[in-house]
Amino acid sequence: MKSGYPPAAWRLLIEGEADGATQMARDEAILTAVIEGSSPPTLRFYAWSPPCLSLGRNQPLADVALAACRAAGVEVVRRPTGGRAILHTDELTYSVALRQDDPRATGDLVESYRRLSEGLLAGLRSLGADAVQARSRELPADPTAICFEAPSDYEIVVGGRKLVGSAQWRTRGGVLQHGSLPLWGDLTRIVACLALSAPEQEAQRHRLRMRAITLEEALGRPVSFAQAAQALAQGFAQALNLVLVPGELTARERALAVELRRSRYAAAGWTGRA
Q: What is the pTM for the complete model shown?
């Protein structure tokens, strides 16, 4: 037994790029299948194309500069999870879908964050990152629309700067947690996608440079999507006592994802709901 968890077999999905609505629909379809018992707990890695700004479940659409996003070729999608905006580009996204009665998901949201973050931490450290879990950092009195401005408890930081932004959704006895690991690039690009005045944009860029970091900057070298996915998979297996079995989406999950994309994640009613 490792880390106090009983052994378990999870499905591992390492997928390529897709648009934001498709990726969010797949995450929810997988969670539904896990809750139903037709699919095992699942760890998934994926990327986004074209670049996409994702909003937290209850974040106001008014936070977004829609015309600027369209001009830059950036899509906008609303996540099923909470939190604030993330610009998904040049990154690896992970998602975990499991049942709430799994010992790795027990406790409240913060406690389950801590448990699942152990896998991220182990994987990033294996790459050489001096990564730790953030603890009890006081959020700004006026938090902005940007996820990477400040870490929540047990999110991953390097040198006090946020490296992984995660969010969670609990529903019908299941847990979906997904998050963004920026591999390289300019993290301040998100500022142009938000409804901010010119002075506010400059202030936000400065804060992001001070408070967020990419994996390339943390390590002093680039890491490919494939290398990062392999390291994080090994980290989850080690820290959570898992056997990861490579797999693919089931026919049920694929069909459900297509329907969820049409009816929810690509629908104006969902994206504009808050």
A: 0.93
